[in-house]
Amino acid sequence: NAGVMQNPRHLVRRRGQEARLRCSPMKGHSHVYWYRQLPEEGLKFMVYLQKENIIDESGMPKERFSAEFPKEGPSILRIQQVVRGDSAAYFCASSPGQGAGQNYGYTFGSGTRLTVV
Amino acid sequence: QQPVQSPQAVILREGEDAVINCSSSKALYSVHWYRQKHGEAPVFLMILLKGGEQKGHEKISASFNEKKQQSSLYLTASQLSYSGTYFCGTETNDYKLSFGAGTTVTVRA
Q1: Is the pLDDT of residue B56 over 80?
Q2: Rounded to whole angstroms, how far apart are CA atoms B88 and B73?
Q3: How does strand A53-56 pair with strand A65-68?
């Protein structure tokens, strides 16, 4: 049973380019969460998605960032016109259902390390 | 709103015990604990639901005080493999986890 698959593992972009990060959740998981982590810091929530729906994007910058989870295919986190401050590790996690006291944890992918040069 | 974790870091010798605390200012539905090794993904350890239960995973256990909105993670008889950064994740009524800043645990032989 494959876990959460993220690709690419490492991504280098020049300032002003676009970055596309992909996440395939675990089989049977329909809830996807994206988190951003700076070196030596915690995980900052960005966006929570279900198939074809954005449930909560309160942690995502209003400009340049967007996310989707189409009916078919992986979830995509897209960063347009990247700047040096976007350099970070981006983790995707999935769960089989919505939280609010349900008895399951998140399964995290290995992350995409984005470096903007 | 992010939960507050303490301490920021702890250094142990093999066999010693440690406690990591996590507190929130909001009413919690659940508390999760994860461990992350350097350069790797966070790994789920356990979840505690409302009701003040205590859970265990190997010699790692946790408790949840619902009234105080606090959780504690107990590392007992620590092993070298326990080294890593421990994060608590708190869930409120918005169905997502907010993570603390992490506690770095170093276990030395």
Answers
A1: no
A2: 9
A3: unpaired
pLDDT value, residue A105: 85
What's the CA gap between B1 and A5, in Å, rounded? 28
Which residues of chain B have a CB within 8 Å of the CB of A48? 95-96
Q: Mean pLDDT, to the nearest integer, of B57-70?
A: 87
Largest CA distance in chain A: 42
* Residues B104 and B83 sit within 8 Å (Cβ to Cβ): no
The yes-or-no verdict on residue B28 having pLDDT over 90 is no
**pLDDT for B59:** 84
CA–CA gap between residue B13 and residue B35 (Å, rounded): 18
CA distance B109 to A33: 37
Write down the mean pLDDT value for chain B. 91
Distance between CA A64 and CA A103 in Å, rounded?
35
Residues 6 or more apart in contact with residue A55 via CB below 8 angstroms = A48, A49, B95
Residues belonging to chain A: 117
Residues on chain B touching A100 (C-beta within 8 angstroms)? 29, 91, 93, 95
**DSSP per-residue string spanning B14-71:** TT--EEEEEE-SS--SEEEEEEE-TTS--EEEEEEETTT-EEEETTEEEEEETTTTEE
Positive or negative: CA dihedral B73, B44, B86, A68: negative
Tell which phi-psi region holds residue A53, choosing left (phi > 0), alpha (psi between -120 and 50) or beta.
beta
**Residue B80 amino acid letter:** L
Q: Which of B32, B96, B102 sits opposite A105 (nearest CB)?
A: B32
